[in-house]
Design a protein that fits this description.
The chain is an alpha+beta fold and 88 residues long. 12% of the residues lie in helices and 26% in strands. It has one helix spanning 48-58, and strands at 2-3, 7-13, 62-67, 73-80.
Length: 88
């Protein structure tokens, strides 16, 4: 977690294979699943990351992805502090 006067950032890391750089933005598109074994029968619809990013951006923040140098994916959620959010 990183914290400053105007923003709060939370970074989550897994220890899987990561996501190739050319595919990272694609996972925010509706119904996209990079894992070929995933299907509607195994759960999920490929909407979660896109919805989460839409909400974060509507609040003045963002969600970004990168691969950790030692392996695994890092997801960073950055949001403005509550006093900085307008329209709520």
């Amino acid at each position: 977690m990183e914290d400053d006067a105007s923003r709060l950032s939370i970074t989550i890391r897994d220890h899987g294979p990561g996501i190739p750089e050319g595919q990272r933005e694609r996972v925010f598109s509706p119904f996209v699943r990079l894992e070929p074994s995933r299907s509607r029968n195994t759960g999920g619809s490929g909407l979660g990351l896109g919805i989460a990013r839409h909400i974060a951006r509507a609040l003045g923040g963002d969600i970004s992805l990168d691969n950790h140098p030692e392996g695994g994916l890092r997801v960073r959620v950055t949001l403005p502090r509550m006093q900085d959010i307008t329209g709520l």
